[in-house]
């Protein structure tokens, strides 16, 4: 009998313990959200704040594109010869008219001298023949056109004149000059080799940016609209450009080709992959920094500053760009926002509701 009473007492105690545990678990589940509000209190909460106001929000469309030099030509010698000197290297900036390379000038120089001698001889023959007709070289403007042409042909003056012009042009072409200011690329020629293609010259003062937008984004882009261009290799570089043209056709992938123009920079290169950001301004929006909104219980929350404490405020994020959110109070959670509220913008990662905070 004594043993039976002992077993009974243990059974009753076990039932009571299980009941208490179940009650505590239920209470824990019910208060889970409220407990979360206090789980993020830090020992010392130093924060920064900014007043909530309505302002213009820059809605952004971000695309990937490729740079293309607005002017790019293959530079090559216009005459035959052996390369004697190359004055540039890949990546070097040159000015319009600057000599890039030269051919050996020994033979062209001799040909030029011979052409000048032939011209001088023809000019003397011309002077003698004009005397036969009662004219001098100073009277050529008054000679009838038909008669003058016959005299010039018979004396060989026209042939000598054309030969001299060709020899002078060939001699000048031994020096290959830059057709415009730009940057040397893909240098191919070598000294002592036959002349031909020297390099590619890129006008790096401006670049074209080619990218695609979806058909559904067509109305977001307009000719003349500002774009921000940033190379993938250095996101800190941001250059302002503008949309030049929009192709009025949709391709098989549902995309529309857009071309923009951006000023040159040492940070850009022909063929470089870039990120393009297009902005449209939307007025009268509640705009906060992205850092002001945090996630609590899988919901978007920001904290207002009131009387030295943080106030937990549920919000809905309506739009975002790279640095800002457009928000509204989450009415379903009983939240409210008013113009002039001090919004905590930093130091909020570990905050809970009604946590004491100090302004930085």
Give the topology, please.
Layout (H helix, E strand, L loop, with lengths): L1 H29 L1 H5 L9 E6 L2 E23 L6 E4 L6 E2 L4 E5 L2 H27 L12 H10 L2 H16 L2 E3 L4 E4 L11 E18 L11 E6 L7 E8 L8 E9 L9 E17 L4 E3 L2 E8 L2 E12 L3 E6 L12 E5 L11 E2 L1
Parallel strand pairs: 1-18
Antiparallel strand pairs: 1-17, 2-8, 2-12, 3-5, 4-7, 5-6, 7-8, 8-11, 9-10, 9-12, 10-11, 12-16, 13-14, 14-15, 15-16
Entry summary:
This protein has five helices and 18 strands. With 360 residues, it is an alpha+beta fold.
Structure commentary:
The chain has 360 residues and is of the alpha+beta class. The protein has three domains: 37-56 and 284-359, conserved putative lor/sdh protein from methanococcus maripaludis s2 fold (Beta Barrel), CATH 2.40.420.20; 61-70 and 204-282, Elongation Factor Tu (Ef-tu), domain 3; 105-173. The chain is 24% helix and 39% strand. The chain contains five helices and 18 strands. The protein has helices at residues 2-30, 32-36, 106-132, 145-154, 157-172, and strands spanning 46-51, 54-76, 83-86, 93-94, 99-103, 175-177, 182-185, 197-214, 226-231, 239-246, 255-263, 273-289, 294-296, 299-306, 309-320, 324-329, 342-346, 358-359. A six-stranded antiparallel beta barrel has the order 2-8-11-10-9-12. Strands 17-1-18 form a three-stranded mixed sheet, with no helix packed on it. It has a three-stranded antiparallel sheet with strand order 3-5-6, with no helix packed on it. Helix 3 packs antiparallel against helix 5 (157-172). It is elongated, with a radius of gyration of 41 Å. The two termini are 74 Å apart. The model is unreliable at 20-24 (pLDDT under 50).
């Amino acid at each position: 009998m004594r043993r039976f009473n002992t077993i009974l007492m243990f059974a009753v105690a076990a039932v009571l313990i299980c009941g208490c545990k179940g009650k505590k678990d239920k209470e824990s589940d019910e208060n889970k959200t409220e407990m979360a509000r206090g789980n993020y209190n830090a020992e010392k909460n130093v924060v920064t704040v900014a007043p909530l106001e309505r302002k213009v929000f820059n809605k952004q469309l971000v695309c990937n594109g490729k740079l293309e030099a607005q002017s790019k030509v293959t530079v090559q010698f216009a005459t035959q010869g052996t390369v004697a000197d190359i004055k540039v290297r890949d990546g070097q900036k040159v000015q319009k008219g600057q000599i890039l390379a030269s051919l050996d000038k020994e033979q062209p120089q001799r040909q030029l001298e011979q052409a000048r001698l032939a011209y001088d001889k023809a000019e003397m023959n011309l002077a003698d023949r004009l005397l036969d007709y009662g004219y001098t070289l100073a009277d050529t403007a008054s000679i009838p056109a038909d008669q003058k042409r016959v005299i010039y042909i018979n004396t060989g003056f026209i042939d000598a004149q054309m030969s001299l012009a060709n020899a002078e042009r060939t001699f000048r072409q031994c020096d290959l000059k830059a057709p415009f200011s730009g940057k040397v690329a893909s240098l191919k020629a070598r000294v002592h080799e036959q002349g031909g293609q020297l390099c590619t010259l890129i006008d790096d003062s401006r670049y074209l940016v080619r990218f695609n937008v979806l058909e559904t984004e067509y109305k977001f882009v307009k000719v003349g609209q500002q774009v921000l261009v940033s190379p993938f290799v250095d996101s800190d570089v941001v250059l302002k450009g503008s949309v030049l043209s929009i192709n009025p056709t949709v391709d098989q992938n549902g995309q529309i080709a857009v071309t923009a123009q951006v000023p040159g920079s040492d940070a850009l290169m022909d063929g470089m992959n870039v990120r393009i950001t297009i902005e449209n301004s939307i007025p009268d929006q509640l705009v906060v920094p992205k850092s002001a909104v945090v996630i609590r219980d899988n919901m978007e929350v920001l904290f207002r500053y009131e009387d030295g404490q943080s106030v937990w405020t549920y919000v809905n994020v309506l739009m975002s760009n790279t640095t800002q959110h457009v928000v509204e109070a989450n009415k379903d959670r009983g939240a409210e926002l008013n113009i002039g509220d001090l919004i905590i913008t930093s130091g909020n990662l570990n905050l809970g509701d009604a946590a004491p905070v100090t302004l930085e």
